[in-house]
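job 3f2a | input accepted
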Amino acid sequence: MITDDICKALYALPTGVVAARRQSVCRPTVIALVGAALLVLNFVLVDDKSGAMGMSLMVAGITMLLYGVVIAIVHLMSDRRVPYHKTTKRYMRFRERYYDREQLAELQKAVARGDRAGIEALPQGNVAAITLVECYAHDRSIVAYAIYEYTNFDNKLIGEVKLVGGRG
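job 3f2a | predicted structure (168 res):
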């Protein structure tokens, strides 16, 4: 996967502030419980004469219940690990941005400096010729950048993963 290089760099931090954890089942469970609550509300409170409201609650409830159950089962059965920031007690987020090849030099300079404003100022494209993958903690105390170039039907890492923060 395209995020493997960033994950390896984050897990290797000397302070051990980022750990590999299985994705949580809390959020899908809450979604399933809300779906079940909507179904109960539908059967208890909605009058049979108001077909549109009852049908809407039933569709929303069934959809949320099934989605929550399926995603929770997938998270429980999966061996996939994602970066977890121990300081903020939250999972780290990923973001991908796409750029044209002409902007590669400017992008590399901004990433090397850890210049978030410079990266944001670069115009983004719709084609993944150059992909910037960013993994960051909720409070942005740790940010990891990796630049990939799409060549020969594969994403090739350009340079090394750049870590900003998280060293102390």
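job 3f2a | The first helix runs from residue 4 to 11.
job 3f2a | closed
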